[in-house]
Design goal:
The structure holds two protein chains of two kinds.
Chain A lengths: L4 E2 L20 H14 L1 H22 L13 H8 L3 H22 L1 H8 L4 H36 L12 H26 L2 H20 L13 H6 L4 H5 L6 H25 L3
Chain B lengths: L1 E10 L2 E11 L4 E5 L6 H8 L7 E6 L10 H4 E4 L11 H10 L5 H10 L15 H13 L5 E5 L7 H16 L3 E5 L3 H7 L2 E6 L2 E7 H7 L5 E4 L3 H8 L5 E4 L4 E5 L3 H10 L6 E4 L4 H9 L12
Parallel strand pairs in B: 3-7, 3-8, 5-6, 6-7
Antiparallel strand pairs in B: 1-2, 1-4, 8-9, 10-12, 10-13, 11-12
Helix pairs in contact in B: 3-4, 8-11
Classes of the chains: A mainly alpha, B alpha/beta.
Chain lengths: ~280, ~300
């Protein structure tokens, strides 16, 4: 049928301005919106709880078993703290999953359509999710790391190990760095969820980058292992002393952390581009 | 008001919407019709800015929607597919949307009440039936008291009570001067609710008109005859290709012959005829006639 049946509307209606309840979209409002979601989702608190338990529990378990840690020429105070923080290697997987889910979950459930229909400029949604996720993960991880530090150090010294204080060289940096590291990992998870949009894909890539590749790399011959310090988990791990656990060449705590943040910034940029440019 | 001008959307090789232009006026309910795959949902996604047009423009209340300052006061939309988070309660789903526009809890509770969700507001939306999900979706669309409301199949899965709620809701929104665009595959429902129609077929505009004119344009082909000699006239008219239906009263519904032929036959047979008029097509008949060329998926058709 080629002909289009088309007629104009009837007599023009008077146009009263209908009442409205809605104000302009602002970044602060979108942050409140995202906080409402993050807070109300059970997965947030389950993942958070599991991460805290892993950090504190594993730390206490290590401190409470084996020979007590003695500070000596080769064993610094910071090294002892790093060993007890090993739970982070597992907690990072849980928080990464949380990050992936926070974005991919919106695509999986279809909520993204409702979200973007009310914030059609889109980018404020990404910024808000980043802020609420990092804003929750940072204090949560810091709490876990500090609790782990005091619990582990109390156990060590009760068993005759060296007393380690937060003021010993590198110790405070490792404890605070652990929290910074985990917050950035959660952010990277979020960007993977935003980029890949599918939970399975997001989790696979995250697990590959933070679990599989670092493990495989550890077994590579030294000659082709030059990139190892630049892997996100290895580079970022330097800030909480992970490098000390595995040895090998390290970038240094703040340089390594900067490299990790560099990855995060690139991923945020890609996620923003994808969110903005592609159909929801 | 929704103004669509030269709108085209292609997904890869497939053209979902093809050079579409129409205007949805405020103050009336506009029905959005078309066979499955005609491009209705795509058009709605384009209106909400969820998909970008390949070419053409969409304006909502005179503005480019993604660029407007207070989106929730401009447009409220219910999309066909579910768009709620099953892990959040009905209230938190609504609250999360409301927060983006500074809408308070009082308005959230208002729409919960309005949508009949008060008893389940604290329950996770994942357990909702289709009808409950629809009610929640409609509540979300109404949150900001938007000037323009777009609803894709709102009565889908609703019980009769819910259907009536939607019908009255749409009418009252239009009376308040809002723009209302609603799609439905229930023609009888549409005939009762809509004043104007936009009809699509294969991504193209087939009709943009009033319901009255749309039905008026359709050729029912049937003729209603009122005669005290219904039985005899029926016999006389009977023949190949002619069907005569009688409901036992003095009215016959005849198809296969024109009103002129019936009148002439009756006059020849000396049968009195009190009334002779073309039967009015239903909206469904009108729709079928207009869209039969453009139906994408024929039932049982082999391609």
């Amino acid at each position: 049928m080629s002909a289009v049946l088309q007629t104009g509307p009837g007599p023009a209606q008077p146009a009263p301005a209908p009442a409205t309840a809605a104000g302009p979209v602002t970044q602060v409002r979108v942050i409140r919106s995202e906080w409402t979601k993050l807070r109300a989702l059970r997965s947030t608190w389950w993942c958070g709880l599991i991460a805290v338990v892993l950090i504190v529990g594993l730390g206490a378990a290590i401190a409470g078993s084996g020979p007590p840690y003695q500070i000596s020429a080769g064993n610094s105070a910071a090294g002892g703290v790093a060993i007890s923080l090993v739970g982070i290697l597992f907690a990072q997987l849980v928080l990464g999953v949380l990050g992936v889910l926070l974005f991919s979950g919106e695509y999986a459930t279809g909520m993204i359509r409702a979200t973007l229909a009310v914030v059609p400029s889109r980018l404020p949604v990404l910024w808000a999710k980043l802020i609420v996720l990092a804003g929750l993960m940072l204090p949560l991880s810091l709490l876990a790391a500090v609790a782990e530090f005091f619990a582990a150090m109390a156990l060590e010294s009760s068993r005759g190990g060296s007393a380690i204080s937060l003021t010993d060289p590198g110790v405070l940096r490792e404890v605070v760095g652990a929290a910074l590291y985990l917050a950035v990992i959660a952010v990277i998870g979020l960007t993977l969820g935003a980029l890949l949009r599918r939970t399975a894909a997001g989790l696979s890539v995250f697990a590959a980058v933070f679990l599989v590749i670092p493990l495989v790399t550890a077994y590579l011959p030294a000659s082709i292992k030059g990139f190892a310090p630049y892997l996100p988990s290895n580079a970022g791990g330097d800030i909480w002393g992970a490098g000390k656990l595995f040895g090998g060449h390290q970038l240094g705590p703040w340089t390594g952390f900067a490299v990790l943040c560099g990855y995060a910034v690139v991923l945020i940029g890609l996620a923003a581009w994808r969110l903005r440019r592609h159909d929801a | 008001m929704i103004e669509i001008d030269g709108l085209t959307k292609r997904y890869g090789d497939k053209t979902a919407v093809d050079g579409l232009s129409f205007v949805v006026e405020p103050g009336v309910v506009t029905g959005f019709l078309g066979p499955n795959g005609a491009g209705k949902s795509t058009t709605m996604r384009l209106i909400a800015g969820l998909d970008r047009p390949t070419s053409g423009t969409v304006r909502v209340n005179g503005q480019h929607y993604p660029g407007c300052a207070a989106p929730m006061s401009e447009l409220g939309i219910l999309l066909d597919a579910r768009s709620v988070h099953p892990g959040l309660s009905a209230r938190n789903n609504l609250l999360a949307l409301a927060r983006t526009a500074g809408i308070g809890r009082r308005r959230v509770d208002e729409v919960i009440e309005l949508a009949g969700l008060a008893d389940v507001a604290g329950t996770r939306a994942g357990g909702f039936s289709l009808g409950m999900g629809q009610r929640l979706g409609v509540a979300a669309a109404l949150l900001g008291q938007p000037q323009t409301v777009v609803l894709d199949e709102p009565v889908n899965g609703l019980d009769p009570d819910g259907v009536r709620w939607i019908r009255e809701l749409l009418k009252s929104l239009a009376e308040e001067g809002r723009t209302v665009l609603v799609s439905s595959h229930l023609m009888s429902e549409m005939a009762q609710t809509a004043t104007r129609l936009v009809v699509l077929g294969r991504g193209r505009l087939i009709a943009e008109t009033s319901v009255e004119e749309f039905i008026g344009h359709a050729v029912a082909g049937d003729v209603l005859v009122r005669t005290p000699e219904a039985a005899r006239l029926g016999q006389v008219l009977a023949g190949p290709g002619v069907t005569v239906a009688s409901d036992g009263t003095d009215v016959l519904r005849v198809s296969g012959v024109t009103a002129e032929q019936i009148g002439t036959t009756a006059w020849r047979e000396h049968l009195p005829v009190f009334e002779l008029k073309p039967a009015r097509a239903s909206l469904e008949e009108a729709f079928m006639q207009v869209t039969q060329d453009s139906i994408e998926y024929h039932a049982g058709a082999t391609r």
